[in-house]
Amino acid sequence: WVDERRDPVLLAFDSWLWRYPPLRWAVRRPVLHGTWKMAQRTTYEPRADETMESYLVIHQTYSTIRVNGLYAISDSQSLSADLTVEKSRCMLSYVFRTDAHTMHRAGNPPSRGAATLKVGRRPQLHLEGDYWMERGMRGSVKSVGHTPKIYDTFEAARQASYKLHPSQVESDAASRASIGPIETANPQSPPAGPAE
Fold this sequence. Notes:
- By secondary structure, the protein is an alpha+beta fold.
- The chain has helices spanning 8-15, 23-27, 154-158, 166-169, 172-179, and strands at residues 34-42, 52-60, 65-70, 74-86, 89-100, 111-120, 126-133, 138-147, 163-164.
- The radius of gyration is 17 Å and the shape is globular.
């Protein structure tokens, strides 16, 4: 094992070189780094019939991955995360903690959860999977767009431009209408993760 702190070439490879061709093709690891716009469903009764807007912010090097979630009234951070690549199958799994924003903490204490997302490669890179919360809530998330930029707040991510998945281009107007602004009721949103 080479200490990255003493090997600038290895440090550069781990940080960013691996993301670019032809190295990216050689390592066969998907580049998830950036902010993902997600469509989210939940079993939380007051919002069980809604499709909510959320964002997953993924910080990725070759050797590490972290997943943060941005929601209208809460944020989440991964406590541990792992990207597993086995032949044609790729899974992003993580355990996370979610915390409501200061003005929305009444009845919404910090909570832990876990998420497992399948990383699809065709027709374009996309994320889709499920999450569970220790309070009994569960749900699903599906990506609708991606940007390589990193955002730290829900509003900043919401105002950003995304490369939409092909299936979303024609239905973007409908998606915006259905996802729409998220009400400030307690959604018990999964912390990012994907909740992270």
